[in-house]
Amino acid sequence: MQIGLDGNEANVKNRVGSGVYALELLKEFSKDKNHQFLVYLKEKSLPDLPKESANFTYKVFGPKKLWTQFALSLKLFFGKKPDIFFSMGHYGPRFSKVPYVITIHDLSYLHYPQMFKKNDLYQLVNWTKYSVKTAAHIVTVSETTKKDIIENYSLDPSKITVTYEGYDKSRFKPQPKSKIESVKKKYKIAGDYIIFVGTLQPRKNIERLVDAFSLLTQNSELKTQDLSLVLVGKKGWLYDSIFAKIKTLDVDNQVIFTDYVPDDDLPVLIAGAKAYVLPSLWEGFGLPVIEAQACGVTVVVSSISSLPEIVGDSGILADPKSVESISNGLKKVLMDDKLRSELVKKGFANIKRFSWQTCAQQTLDVLEKVALTSKPIV
């Protein structure tokens, strides 16, 4: 079977979220010898993408602007047609004679539209709506998001398959103290720290996290010294208020912003933290959470959207709209060594549910089934 893939989500330098998902699936697909994979790109493939082989090739073409809607659509309409096409992002081609499958990661733009730039919001709302209606099948990354898709787009549940994300087992694991100390020195971190990993954007709820951290540092019962909050991630959009909040609360010297961190440093930075925190207002999966657990770090996460499903009883759940709840969740972890140790063990057990190999195989199963049962669009 010949499978067409939109590989653009993976073909970026500083990958987060859906970019990591796309790259890991491409890696797994490139190992499969039962199918022919055609990876469509609007720019030349980056060096760390899987190498071409007899059954895994790249096709680069433009124009780049509105690539999914026009260039890709024309290629699938007039060019050599694969049996099935898979987009690892929300958008399918505007018109196509090839049945296609899309991945929807989350519907945060419907729940918090005010937290997106107008142009991005318009595209997410309208292009996703079209793609959902015309896709032969939808893949999503959690049962929570599946339910959300059903409720918002009135879809038959049988049209949606959940494939949990995975983590890179070779990278995300406990790290030696010597490496941790070296990386801490590199990023000028002294003493203990709490870590957040994610793009700086309103949905991540970082302003409340800063408030919660400020409240936490005022607690004289804490056993930790020189506590810092380390924010790891690139600037996304509407982030100026985060830095304003840090100045207002006068915690400039305790909040460390690293920007995007190289792949080699990230697991070490996470492993050295006392706790990982994700107080997000909405997540489709929450990939950094299981990466943190794989590094042996206790997690404190939101009690809403997909995070309770992904974490279960292996982490602390906090109300993301309550500064006190976030602060108390962190306080529990920092003050109770026994609890932290128990949650680390539960975290190691929890991550056994997640694998990129399984995710890729389940996705291939969907593509095979859809290719066999869907009639070409004429």
From TrEMBL:
Pfam families linked: Glyco_transf_4, Glycos_transf_1
Segments forming domain Glycosyl transferase family: 191-347
Any one of the GO BP annotations: lipopolysaccharide biosynthetic process
Domain Glycosyltransferase subfamily 4-like N-terminal: 17-171
Keywords, in A-Z order: Transferase
Top-rank lineage group of the source organism: Bacteria
Claim: Transmembrane helix is one of the keywords in the record: no
A GO molecular function held by the record: glycosyltransferase activity
CDD domains found in the cross-reference section: GT4_MtfB-like (cd03809)
Listed InterPro entries: Glyco_trans_1, Glyco_trans_4-like_N
PANTHER family to which the protein is assigned, alphabetical: GLYCOSYLTRANSFERASE WBBK-RELATED
Protein name, per record: Glycosyl transferase family 1
Source organism of this protein record: Candidatus Curtissbacteria bacterium RIFCSPHIGHO2_01_FULL_40_12
Lineage start: Bacteria, Candidatus Curtissiibacteriota
